[in-house]
Specification:
alpha+beta, Dna Ligase, domain 1, homodimer, globular, 33% helix, Arc Repressor Mutant, subunit A, three-stranded mixed beta sheet, three-stranded antiparallel beta sheet, DNA-binding, 4 helices, 2 domains
Chain lengths: 138, 138
DNA sequence: ATACTACGATGGACGAAGTCCAAGTCAATA
DNA sequence: TATTGACTTGGACTTCGTCCATCGTAGTAT
């Protein structure tokens, strides 16, 4: 955590109370929060924080590569603080909760040259879908 | 195409002019249109068609498994008429165009039991990212 | 052909998610 | 401790999508 704040300061970030709180919220629980979740938790610690600032800060963290934006459905984006460990996602089709997973193999290598259409590949996201134990009624 | 209309009638669909037009638009160009794209093209053929009907029809086609909903970014969903041939997507990070691709291997099998967290898996979506030849300046 | 009726279409209000902007505030620097 | 430009604020605005009461019509029966 303090690592994150240190990295941000090194990159010329002005360390405001608002940014600190957003970073703390993301780092606090390693779950995948929506912007509104972040706003709610941030407001608990710093009541005057505004929606715009939360969006701004999340966007900056994404640009800096400290946080990953996950759009698993057409709903609100979720923010994944686990950015420094490559992984994919497993999403519950009922309740929408997300787990980080690491499949075997190298999916990038699995795309044959004939299927690349001349693209220069930069990465691949995998989203596994299923029903979690809670929603399955187990 | 007439196949699609036939399948829909077999499933008890009332074949209205609006539904016919939406189906034709989707089947016409095999690209990945947004709901607004579909509305625009549908309006060209049937000026009185309403936004709600386009959304309703697209939703029904998705439920019937005739069309796949693709959410590659946080923006508008896109609708993929290539539903009967399993495939994944290759998205240009610059211009956003989408190509259908078929990677080798079975990504579902690549998720080890220890990484399934008790979920009952139903499928997996892969989104390859890269830059297309046009955008690469080639 | 005609009438009937339930299913589908309409459009406008509504809601959720996110962006933008002018004005005010404050962290870092000197 | 004064300065200043980067940051924050809140509210208006945009985009994408849903909902609903009312109207229209495809398919069926006669």
């Amino acid at each position: 955590m303090s690592d994150l704040l240190a990295r941000l300061r090194d990159r010329g970030w002005r360390l405001t109370a608002q940014r600190r709180v957003v970073a703390e919220v993301l780092d606090g629980e390693h779950v995948h929060l929506t912007a509104d979740d972040v706003l709610e938790r941030a407001t608990a610690r710093l009541p005057e924080i505004s929606r715009a600032t939360v969006y701004n800060t999340l966007g900056e963290l994404v640009l800096l590569g400290e946080v990953i934006e996950v759009a698993t459905d057409g709903r609100a984006k979720r923010y994944d603080p686990n950015a420094h460990r490559p992984h994919h996602h497993l999403v519950c089709s009922r309740c929408g909760t997300i787990r980080d997973v690491r499949p075997a193999g190298d999916p990038l290598a699995d795309l044959p040259a004939g299927e690349r259409f001349g693209f220069t590949l930069s990465g691949v996201e995998m989203t596994y879908r299923g029903v979690c134990p809670d929603c399955a009624g187990g």
